[in-house]
Amino acid sequence: MGTSSSSMLSLLSIILLLSLSWAASDSVHGAFLQCLSTHSQSSHPISAVLYTLDNSSYSSVLESYIRNL
């Protein structure tokens, strides 16, 4: 019974740590994109060359990139 409880506790701890790291990476990613947008020149906006999952052209740009490898 003790081994089962410690295994379950270990599993829950790992899941918690992974979810925290994913949340942190999302906020870092968002902050990075915001920084790029803020510091890009208005005559050459970064949004014209930066494609994220939110962009409707993301899939087609990714497929083209993969084909050109």
Automatic annotation (TrEMBL):
Region forming the signal peptide: 1-23
Keywords: Signal
Keyword Signal (UniProt): yes
Keyword Signal: yes
InterPro entries tied to this protein: FAD-bd_PCMH_sub1
Top-level taxon of origin: Eukaryota
Protein name listed in UniProt: Uncharacterized protein
